[in-house]
Design a protein that fits this description.
- There is one protein chain.
- The chain has 537 residues and is mainly alpha-helical.
- The protein folds into three domains: 264 residues, no CATH class; 146 residues, no CATH class; 115 residues, no CATH class.
- It has 25 helices and two strands.
- Strands 1-2 form a two-stranded antiparallel sheet.
- A hairpin with a 2-residue loop joins strand 1 and strand 2.
- The longest helix has 35 residues.
Length: 537
């Protein structure tokens, strides 16, 4: 009971209405910024740039006004006219330069099919032209392989088609492309995503497991590619996968650039495969039962390059950013509580505390418990504010629907907030390790300003440490609590975290163990120092 009274007295000393309102205002501003910043990375708005934004107007005017154009210049002008028309089409129809927009992919295919047909027709209709005849009769023009740089030149492109003319297959190739162009044009005109998926299914362009997911989109007649059903299909078919399979290829590409060993690569691949199986089952269950999942990830290659993200915004994906609230929460704790021990000495109130008939270890314990409760209160306030703002922006319905998790070999539905609070509790263990460092410094240095400065740096440093850990190969950082202060990197599978996974098996369980050891050791040392200092006073 005495400890309870001591904790209550700490709240009375440190809390005031003005201070509380300022804290709420700061957290609110941070939550609004966090939501809007997060929303920038979701495909809700189309990019202002057209699909083929680069266009050489000067060269285009030059070719247009030239009277005697040769075959290569005619081809160049034709290709530029295609790009010009596509640019106008994308701007008119709000088509973005983004992998998630199926119309973008069709336009890319149409562009190259039109150019290919132009070249095929050029050979067919001008085979007696001296320029073409010379290329087709001279094997030196033929590129040694398709990736040869010469294949991108105009003579190289012509040379690649000469054999098709000799085999009498040019007309069939032209006809097949024209058929495809007409189909694509019709799909663009209808502008309905489910019809595009139906085309892919009919043409056998999907993997067998993708067909089932695509059919769910088709049955629901989803027209907009930014609808969460459509983006779920893109997530399903673009889950993170490795890009190298054998040791020789891996070493050739990555060893000289300082990436992890092949053994680490194999371990990372197995991690991806395990997570991929779980995520696919969750996505399938989500679509079948019309319950939004909250899977968010980047599609990255092993080299660390980010490919495309297929993510949709919902209230859940926003509230999941609660883990990143630790940044502002820890900064507020540093500002308001770094003097929890040193402040008593600086004000001289430590003498009054020591003279009370309460054992000194209880005084210290009450201060530490207050520090933990103070942090939890700030964090929960942030969760409430974040939930309210996310609900206002994106709807409250998502927040009352279940969270989907894969457990025991099947997908199950659980209460979203209960599951979130469970994860927040796990994430709070490294936070308590942070508090134990603050507590230790406040006791040892008796310098509130110094403690505030050091701990403020530690509060904002996790993202920097992730970068340092991966690129400087400082794997030992994984065995310190610092990388776990912001568990949003782990729970949201962010790129820095996945990059570290390529080098070492970093996981939350390890972070919890490291944090518990840090808490026990530092609190023990702090307790000894506090007791001895009290005796001196």
């Amino acid at each position: 009971m005495k400890i309870f009274n001591l904790i209550r007295s700490e709240f009375v000393k440190n809390y005031s209405l003005k201070k509380f309102l300022i804290i709420i205002l700061v957290i609110t501003l941070f939550c609004v910024g966090l939501v809007e910043f997060t929303n920038m990375f979701y495909p809700q708005k189309s990019d202002d740039n057209p699909v083929f934004s680069f266009f050489d107007e000067h060269r285009y005017k030059e070719l247009n006004t030239k009277n005697n154009r040769d075959l290569e210049e005619e081809y160049e002008l034709y290709a530029m006219n295609i790009i010009k028309e596509i640019n106008e089409y994308t701007e008119k129809n709000n088509i973005s330069y983004a992998e998630y927009d199926w119309r973008y992919r069709l336009l890319v295919d149409i562009r190259f099919d039109l150019e290919e047909n132009y070249l095929d027709k050029l050979i067919r209709d001008n085979i007696d032209d001296s320029f073409i005849k010379n290329i087709c009769s001279d094997d030196s023009y033929k590129p040694t392989e398709y990736g040869d740089g010469y294949a991108s030149s105009f003579p190289g492109k012509i040379a690649m088609r000469c054999d098709y003319y000799k085999d009498n297959t040019l007309d069939s190739r032209i006809a097949e492309r024209e058929k495809t162009i007409n189909i694509y044009s019709q799909l663009l005109k209808e502008n309905k995503y489910y019809l595009y998926l139906q085309y892919l299914v009919d043409e056998g362009r999907l993997w067998p497991d993708e067909v089932e997911v695509a059919q769910l989109i088709i049955d629901k007649k989803i027209e907009d590619v930014t609808d969460w059903h459509a983006l779920s299909f893109l997530q399903y078919s673009n889950l993170p996968i490795g890009d190298i399979t054998d040791e020789e290829s891996y070493n050739e590409l990555y060893t000289d650039y300082g990436y992890a060993s092949y053994e680490d690569y194999v371990r990372y691949q197995k991690t991806l495969q395990r997570d991929e199986e779980k995520d696919k089952k969750i996505i399938l269950y989500s679509l079948k039962n019309d319950i939004k999942h909250d899977l968010v990830y980047d599609k990255t290659t092993y080299s660390g390059m980010t490919d495309y993200s297929f993510q949709f915004v919902s209230s859940k994906t926003i509230v999941n950013q609660s883990f990143h609230l630790t940044i502002i929460v820890l900064l507020l704790v540093c500002i308001t509580s770094s003097g929890i021990v040193s402040g008593e000495h600086n004000k001289g109130t430590i003498k009054n505390i020591i003279t009370t008939p309460v054992k000194r270890y209880k005084i210290l314990l009450s201060k530490f418990i207050y520090l933990i409760l103070h942090t939890y209160i700030l964090w929960l306030i942030g969760v409430v504010i974040l939930s309210l703002y996310a609900g206002i922006r994106f709807g409250f319905n998502d927040l009352i629907t279940p969270k989907l998790i894969y457990s025991g070999g099947k997908v199950i539905e659980v209460n979203y907030y209960l599951y979130l609070l469970k994860d927040l509790f796990l994430a709070s263990i490294p936070i308590i390790a942070f508090l134990s460092i603050l507590f230790f410094l406040s006791t040892v240095t008796l310098n509130t300003a110094l403690t505030t400065s050091i701990m403020s740096v530690l509060a904002i440093i996790p993202s920097i440490l992730y970068f340092i850990c991966f690129y400087l190969k400082l794997k030992f950082l994984v065995y310190t609590p610092f990388l776990y202060f912001d568990c949003g990197f782990i729970f949201n599978k962010m790129e820095y975290f996945t990059n570290i996974l390529k080098q070492v098996d970093m996981n939350l369980n390890l972070g919890i163990v490291v944090s518990l050891i840090t808490i026990i050791v530092l609190y023990g040392i702090t307790n000894v120092i506090y007791l001895k200092r009290d005796i001196k006073n």
